[in-house]
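Worked problem 6 (solution included).
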Amino acid sequence: MLVVACLLLVSACASIPLSTALRFSSFDEKALHQLDPAAVRVKVSVPRGNEVDIGGTRLKLELQSEGEPLNVADMPLRLLGTTEGKRSAGMFSADIPVTTYELALAPEGAHRLRELQRQMLHGTGPVRFEFSVNTKFSKMVPGLQEMTFWVDLKLRSTDAYMPLLDGAKVKFKQ
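Solution. The predicted structure is:
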């Protein structure tokens, strides 16, 4: 089984939409502390024919209070379902047929988020935080050298999904 790991947020950070950056800029410690782990959702969209390894996909939250060590929650996800659709590859490109994986925090992931939220209570000063998504692929189209993908995050049940990566490209070496 072919398994390829990629840190999606780091590998394509230039693809983070401005609207998402602005939404996160207004997200504070109180909002982070009040997140309900049951409401957190992640969508990963990949071109059809490629498959995401659910067991190898994680939502990662790095949190650091001023003067405190970095705290990291590496949260496993579970599959809620898949859908077929199309995603935009840009203004002058044809839409790409994709499979979208909708994921929620697995019980262990929810537990890790709660632990991190408890640790926040003991911190002092402002809190810096960063979300990222790590994924692995369990199947890839043979000979694939580049893939365009999308990652969306929803932190509350009343929120819309925020694009973390919007048509980001990752290259693979053969």
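Discussion: Residues 107-120 form the longest helix (14 residues).
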